[in-house]
Write a structure and sequence with these properties.
This is Cytochrome B. One of its GO terms (molecular function) is heme binding. It is found in: Cell membrane. Its main location: membrane. The protein is about 60% helix and about 5% strand. It starts with 5 loop residues before the first strand and ends in a 10-residue tail after the last helix. It has one domain: Transmembrane di-heme cytochromes, Chain C (Fumarate Reductase Cytochrome B subunit). By secondary structure, the protein is mainly alpha-helical.
C-alpha cells in the first residue's frame, strides 16, 4: 500500500450523527416557529426543550462516547490553533483545531439559548417552564435570550461558510462524513488515528442515555402549571 493512499474509516458514530442532524432540524424548527409566532410558540418551546436535551446528551457523550466524539480527542490549546493557522496541518480524522472551536462555540450558544428559554417569557401567552420562579430573573433571561439568538445566527453562518470554503478551496467534503460516518485518511496515519468504535454496545448506551435525558426533560417541562403545551 502506498504511503499517500487514502482509505475510509469510521469517524462519526451513529449517535453523534443523529445528534448532529436532530440539532439542525430542531434549531431550524425553533427559529421558524418563533418568527411565525402565535400558536406556533408552543412548538418553539418544545423545540427548545429538545435542544436542551440534545446539548446535555452531547456533553455527556463527549466524555463517554467513541474516540472522535470525545472532547479530549479534538479540544486542544491555543498552540494547536495557531499552528493550524500557520499551515502546520497534520492529519485530523475528526475535528481540526478550528472545527473544535466551532463545535464548542455552537454548543455553548445553543446550550445557553435552550437554558435561558426555560426562564423566558414573551409578555403575551408563552413562558418557559421555570419563568414562574422569579419575574426579574425571567425578564433578564428573556433579554439575554433575544440577544443570543443573533450570536447563534452569526455562528451558524460562519459554520456553513467554513463548510463551503473547505469544499471549494481545499476540496474537503465535511458534510458527507457526517451522513455516512466514514471519512478518508492517509494510510500511513492509521496507527495514530484508528477507526472509531461504532458498535451496538455504544449505540445501546446512547439509547439508554437518551431515555434518561428525555425523562428529565419531560419532568422539567411539567414543573410549571402555567406552561401550557396543549395548543
Amino acid at each position: 500500500m502506498e504511503k499517500n493512499t487514502a482509505i475510509k474509516i469510521r469517524v462519526w458514530d451513529l449517535p453523534t450523527r443523529l445528534f448532529h442532524w436532530a440539532l439542525v432540524a430542531c434549531v431550524l424548527g425553533s427559529f421558524v416557529t418563533v418568527k411565525v409566532g402565535g400558536l406556533w410558540m408552543a412548538w418553539h418551546v418544545r423545540f427548545g426543550l429538545i435542544i436542551l436535551g440534545l446539548i446535555v446528551f452531547r456533553i455527556i457523550w463527549g466524555f463517554c462516547g467513541p474516540r472522535y466524539a470525545r472532547f479530549t480527542q479534538f479540544v486542544h490549546g491555543p498552540r494547536y490553533v495557531l499552528a493550524y493557522l500557520r499551515g502546520i496541518r497534520p492529519h485530523y480524522a475528526g475535528h481540526n483545531p478550528l472545527g473544535a472551536l466551532s463545535v464548542l462555540a455552537l454548543l455553548a450558544s445553543f446550550g445557553f439559548q435552550a437554558f435561558s428559554g426555560l426562564f423566558a417569557n414573551d409578555d403575551v401567552m408563552t413562558t418557559g417552564p421555570l419563568a414562574y420562579l422569579s419575574d426579574s430573573l425571567s425578564d433578564t433571561m428573556t433579554g439575554l435570550h433575544d440577544i443570543n439568538q443573533w450570536i447563534m445566527v452569526a455562528l451558524v453562518c460562519l459554520h456553513v461558510g467554513a463548510l463551503i470554503w473547505y469544499r471549494r478551496v481545499r476540496g474537503l467534503r465535511l458534510v458527507g462524513p457526517m451522513l455516512s460516518g466514514d471519512a478518508p485518511i492517509a494510510a500511513h496515519a492509521l496507527a495514530e488515528h484508528p477507526a472509531a468504535n461504532d458498535s451496538w454496545r455504544y449505540r445501546l448506551g446512547a439509547l439508554l442515555l437518551c431515555a434518561v435525558i428525555a425523562a428529565l426533560i419531560w419532568w422539567l417541562q411539567g414543573l410549571a402549571p402555567a406552561a401550557d403545551f396543549s395548543y
